[in-house]
Specification:
The chain has one helix and five strands. With about 120 residues, it is an alpha+beta fold. The protein has one domain (about 25-115). Strands 1-2-3-4-5 form a five-stranded antiparallel sheet, with no helix packed on it.
Length: about 120
């Protein structure tokens, strides 16, 4: 039993030595992410919502993605809303010929609970 404990402790110690040797690589990256979000009521219970997101690398120099979302909102009450709609993402990838965009379409849903702090 004692031999097993010694072998176990030596293995743990060896793993710790190996972990200390590995150097972590840190990459510096500056990004910008901006969005415009809008929600408007068309009746007491129903409304529309839209989002436009833009994210770039190297601050504003290189595109990263563009995201557009539109949908309908239902107000259960003033604190609880349900939303759903469609979205499209354009993801930028650098290639030898410039930048290619991969498109992705998706459905989305959202539940939101709001509570006022007093």
């Amino acid at each position: 039993m004692r031999q097993r404990l010694i072998v176990f402790l030596l293995c743990i110690y060896g793993l710790q030595l190996h972990a200390q040797v590995v150097q972590k690589e840190v990459k510096q990256q500056v990004q910008f992410w901006g969005s415009i979000n809008a929600t408007s009521r068309v009746s007491n219970k129903w409304g529309l919502m839209t989002d436009l997101h833009i994210r770039t690398n190297n601050f504003l120099k290189d595109p990263n993605f563009y995201f557009l979302r539109a949908g309908a909102v239902y107000w259960v009450n003033d604190q609880f809303t349900l939303a759903g709609g469609i979205a499209h993402l354009w993801l930028a990838t650098a290639t030898e010929n410039g930048i290619d965009f991969a498109g992705e379409k998706r459905a989305y849903q959202q539940l939101q609970w709001r509570e006022k702090n007093q």
